[in-house]
Design brief:
single chain; mainly beta; 4-stranded parallel sheet; about 30% strand; globular
Amino acid sequence: QVCTWEITDFTLNAIYGGDRILNYQITSDVEPYTAEVIYGDNYQQLTNVVIPDTIQIGDKIYTVTGIAQGAFQNCTKLQSITIPENVQTIGDGAFYACDNLTSVVWNAINCNCNRPFYSYNGSKVSSFTFGDKVQTIPAGLCSGLSLLDTIVIPESVTSIGKHAFRGTGITSITIPENVQTIGDEAFYY
């Protein structure tokens, strides 16, 4: 007799960045295996986080394709975050009230999100670096990052979403030749 089951709520604790722990939920336990970051244990102590491209459970390698809604919410000591290439979705408020976040490294090639770094208290993000494989800058990605005054858009980018840089402190920018679309109010304010 063959038994099959579906994993609907599985959390993996993976040590990453010293003694800090990120928790994952499996989103697909059939090939291609995928997982998303759901929260960080001891999150009040997280300062510099590099989310891995993949995690391993037994003999399976899971690609990290998402960051859940509110995953790092209220991580008040978080200063820097690195987003891996294969992240396709970031839930609402994933970095809400990360009031000391100053540096973001964005490697996500094609990601769907809306204002993930926005803060009602005023964002302190002043450094935002894009990886050289990024193709899409999502809607509202840097919206409200008023301390962000310099940005380099890589040649790989083909699309800039609406409100992508709305309300930033950027004073000068070069749009690469490969950019085919720029969304409404991408550079508003």
